[in-house]
Amino acid sequence: RGGSKRIINKNIVDFNGFPMIYWTIKAAKDSGLFNEIIVSTDSLLISEIAEQFGARVIFRDEFYDDYSPVSLATLHTLEKIELIDKITYDNVFQLMANCPLRNGQDIITQYEFFKNDMKKSVISSFRYGMFNPLWAHTIDDNGVAKKLFKDQVKNQRTQDMSEYYCPSGATWICNSNSLKKNKSFYSSGYRFFNLDWINSFDIDTKEDLEIAKKLQGLNNE
């Protein structure tokens, strides 16, 4: 989508020498898994850059506002390309451009997990570490803090709590028929595939962008 607000032109902002979207197209190519690598966009500038790096572009004529779930944009693109090419795809992978640290091997490993027993949907995730959601508080207008999950936490230590997982936009895989039926990757019985938190890093803010650039350098070392 071309209309990002928190980081202008986020999907093509410079990320360690390349437009950010380059890293996702590269990961898709490196995996060697795909019949087609499609970039769905409403932006002419993004389309030109995506094509420069070897992706095919399908222009999005809906679902590019601030409210539509990304799954609907992916479904729209899938249905559009199947109509254009008169071909049916078995599976669809949704690789978000704002997750540039996921690599080709991550995609391959997750796909192997997906193929096992042919799960309908597998969504990349990472395990919460120091940012355990059960420690969340709200702060009211008077500045008073209040625990959100006081009944669950009580006097528990972090190491005594159950493990919790957060979805990441890195790699979402779904059976195409399931996506068409549910209009979501969150189908009945969807599974999480846990990635290293660095590889699953989502970039939403300028602070995230700077952190991710440093994290890529650590990965390269």
Task: Describe the fold and architecture.
The protein has 221 residues and is an alpha/beta fold. It contains 7 helices and 10 strands. The strands form 4 sheets. It has a 4-stranded mixed sheet, sandwiched between helices. A hairpin with a 5-residue loop joins strand 7 and strand 8. Helix 1 packs across helix 4. It is globular.
| Contiguous runs where pLDDT drops below 50 for at least 5 residues | none
Helix content percent band: 25-40%
Number of strands: 10
Radius of gyration: 19 Å
SS content category: alpha/beta
Query: What is the helix tally?
Result: 7
What's the multimeric state? single chain
N- and C-termini, Cα separation:
32 Å
Biggest pleated-sheet summary: 4 strands, mixed
Mean pLDDT: 89
Which percent range describes the beta-strand content?
15-25%
| Order of SSEs | EEHEHEHEHEEEHEHEH
Which sequence of strands runs across the widest sheet?
Answer: 5-9-6-10
Shape: globular
Break the fold down into its secondary structure elements and pairings.
Elements: E1 14-15, E2 18-19, H1 20-31, E3 38-41, H2 44-52, E4 56-59, H3 70-85, E5 91-94, H4 104-115, E6 121-127, E7 137-139, E8 145-147, H5 150-153, E9 165-175, H6 176-182, E10 191-194, H7 206-220
Parallel strand pairs: 3-4, 6-10
Antiparallel strand pairs: 1-2, 5-9, 6-9, 7-8
Helix pairs in contact: 1-4
